[in-house]
Write a structure and sequence with these properties.
This protein has a single domain (2-28, 41-122), classed as SMc04008-like fold (Orthogonal Bundle), CATH 1.10.3340. The protein is 62% helix and 0% strand. By secondary structure, the protein is mainly α. The chain has helices spanning 2-11, 44-64, 70-77, 81-94, 101-109, 113-120, 126-147.
């Protein structure tokens, strides 16, 4: 397992200089809310290496905190480990590469998803389910406001 984790943490360093992840394209990498490039002093290669290192650190942090359930991430941040997996698949497709969703999940989880789920995923509590539903309703209302 350590070899898989080392491989997954190192392989993302080859990511392209301008990462795009579907709807996240609306938020250009390295720009603040005012559109200012906050890392403009860095060349593309260095910036990409830093972004890749931060992504690997995020994966390691999630791996070290398996007690943080995906539903908690979805409630608080509107993303989870599965979202990261989907974004990897989308990024590969945008570059003409193929990454299978299950392979991406194994990369993100550090083991096959079914194994991770059996070992670490707890059933959502009624409170978590209610908070998740409230979050989804907030998103739907915000989208409806934006569309009108």
């Amino acid at each position: 397992m350590m070899a898989l984790q080392a491989r997954r943490r190192d392989s993302i360093a080859d990511a392209p200089a301008t990462p795009t992840f579907g709807k996240l394209d609306a938020y250009p990498m390295g720009q603040n809310d005012n559109g200012v490039n906050t890392m403009q002093h860095l060349d593309d290669s260095t910036r990409t290496e830093l972004e890749a290192a931060a992504f690997r650190r995020l994966l390691r942090h999630l791996d070290e905190h398996k007690e943080v359930q995906n539903i908690d991430l979805m409630i608080l941040a509107d993303f989870c480990r599965n979202c990261l997996s989907k974004w990897l698949v989308a990024a590969a497709e945008e570059r003409g590469e193929t990454v299978n969703y299950e392979a991406a999940r194994e990369y993100v989880y550090g083991m096959p998803y079914g194994e991770w789920k059996a070992k670490y995923q707890a059933d959502a509590t009624p409170e978590q389910q209610a908070a998740f539903e409230a979050r989804q309703q907030q998103k739907a209302a915000a989208k409806q406001d934006a569309d009108s």
